[in-house]
Write a structure and sequence with these properties.
It comes from Phyllobacterium phragmitis. GO terms for molecular function: ATP binding; ATP hydrolysis activity; L-isoleucine transmembrane transporter activity; L-phenylalanine transmembrane transporter activity; L-valine transmembrane transporter activity. With 354 residues, this protein is an alpha/beta fold. It has helices at 49-56, 84-89, 108-114, 117-124, 128-133, 135-154, 170-182, 200-217, 228-234, 252-256, 259-266, 270-281, 288-307; strands at 9-20, 23-34, 38-42, 64-70, 76-78, 93-96, 188-192, 220-224, 237-242, 245-250. It has a six-stranded mixed β-sheet, with helices on both faces. A four-stranded antiparallel β-sheet has the order 2-1-4-5, covered by helices on one side. Strand 4 (64-70) and strand 5 (76-78) form a beta hairpin. Helix 11 runs parallel beside helix 13 (288-307). It is globular and about 70 Å long. It starts with 8 loop residues before the first strand and ends in a 47-residue tail after the last helix. 38% of the residues are buried. The structure holds adenosine-5'-triphosphate and magnesium ion.
């Protein structure tokens, strides 16, 4: 954990709600992001995670609630009242998207320079003479190049600084997006599923990059992630959403053993949660996650035995095993109230965009 956790939260979300017509995507959500921490938001598909980001970054105007951003210099901003460009420039919040949004035809270096466009234009006095002659602009331009170089080295892309960004491997593009966000000097960096689609080596590089960002720049990180290996390894604090409501909030090891979280990921009925809580409270149980899986597997086998007609030759076809929360869900069943008894799924990064 970072040393600054005892400080005031950088972001306070209070009674946040977001409705789309009759659909309640976020319901009276309260959470805090501590300054200098990596805070993860997890939850099944459709839980409302990206919607929270869209409210924080001004893409959506929330239906209700307050989002207070407190900067290091003491300035406070009510994000729900600010337009998105001021959320970036004044409140110092940067984000990446669930789907990659680089300029694929520009090089990594150019992508990082474009991110600093506002600072450069300001130093030019917004005039052509400024661009051509003002010493302030020349200094700012050199500083922008230096910053871009720093981040290219940090993400191991200095050797590919002049290739089109669209030609880079997927993991490198993800890191470049994060570097681009960092070039805007954020105090809060919001990352929407940065590990989606990464192989284990790229995932490890990402973990290191995020820990470096936290430890070396002091930037607070708010992370949406389905990859539990990433969440459990680098997060200081985890918030779990289900159907737009917070169901758990705490340190990673506490959250991973929370029966409500296990149930949300496995997709069990409400009454089963009560049973799980009882069983988890039993001192003889070493690992509640294993217990939940064993319990549900037994139940699934019994269900299958009941459902399958005995005449079927070759034995019953097994249902796909329900997964532990500490793994990426893989089935493609959509989330929804009607699918409560099914393991809810994670879609591939290539599907759709938000
Ligand atoms: N612009 C919109 N209009 C209508 N409904 C929306 C809109 N944006 C999100 N929703 C709905 O709000 C709910 C939450 O969506 P959201 O994208 O926040 O989920 P998520 O937790 O990010 O899911 P995933 O893990 O699949 O990315 C979903 O039911 C979604 O269909
Ligand atoms: Mg999402």
């Amino acid at each position: 954990m970072s040393g600054q956790s005892e400080m005031d939260p950088i972001l306070k979300v209070e009674h946040l709600s977001m409705k789309f017509g009759g659909l309640v995507a976020i319901n009276d959500l309260n959470l805090e992001v501590k300054r200098g921490d990596i805070t993860a938001i997890i939850g099944p598909n459709g839980a409302g995670k990206t919607t929270v980001f869209n409210c924080i970054t001004g893409f959506y105007k929330p239906t209700g609630g307050m989002l207070t951003l407190a900067r290091k210099n003491g300035e406070k901003y009510l994000l729900e009242r600010l337009p998105d460009y001021l959320i970036t420039h004044k409140a110092r919040v940067a984000r990446t998207f669930q789907n990659i949004r680089l300029f694929p035809g520009l090089t990594p270096l150019e992508n990082l320079l474009v991110a600093q466009h506002n600072a450069l234009m300001k130093s030019s006095g917004y005039t052509i003479l400024g661009l051509l002659g003002l010493p302030g602009y020349k200094r700012a331009s050199a500083a922008a190049t230096e910053k871009a170089r720093f981040w290219l080295e940090k993400i191991n892309l200095i050797d590919r600084a002049d290739d089109p960004a669209g030609d880079l491997p997927y993991g490198a593009q993800r890191r470049l997006e994060i570097a681009r966000a960092m070039c805007t000097d954020p105090e809060l960096l919001c990352l929407d599923e940065p590990a989606a689609g990464l192989n284990p080596r790229e995932s490890a590089q990402l973990n290191k990059l995020l820990l470096d960002i936290r430890d070396e720049t002091g930037t607070s990180v708010l992370l949406i992630e389905h990859d539990m290996a990433v969440v459990m390894e680098i997060s200081d604090h985890v918030v779990v959403l289900e159907y737009g409501t917070k169901i758990s909030d705490g340190q990673p090891e506490v959250v991973r053993n929370d029966p409500k979280v296990i149930a949300a990921y496995l997709g069990v009925e409400d009454e089963e949660i009560a049973e799980l809580i009882e069983e988890v409270d039993t001192p003889s149980v070493a690992d509640p996650t294993d217990l939940a899986v064993a319990h549900l597997t037994k139940e699934a086998v019994a269900e299958i035995a009941q459902e399958q007609p005995p005449a079927q030759a070759g034995g019953p076809k097994a249902k796909p095993a329900r997964k532990k929360p500490a793994a990426k869900p893989t089935s493609s069943q959509p989330a929804g109230k009607s699918s409560r008894t099914s393991a809810r799924a994670k879609k591939k990064p290539s599907e759709g965009s938000k």
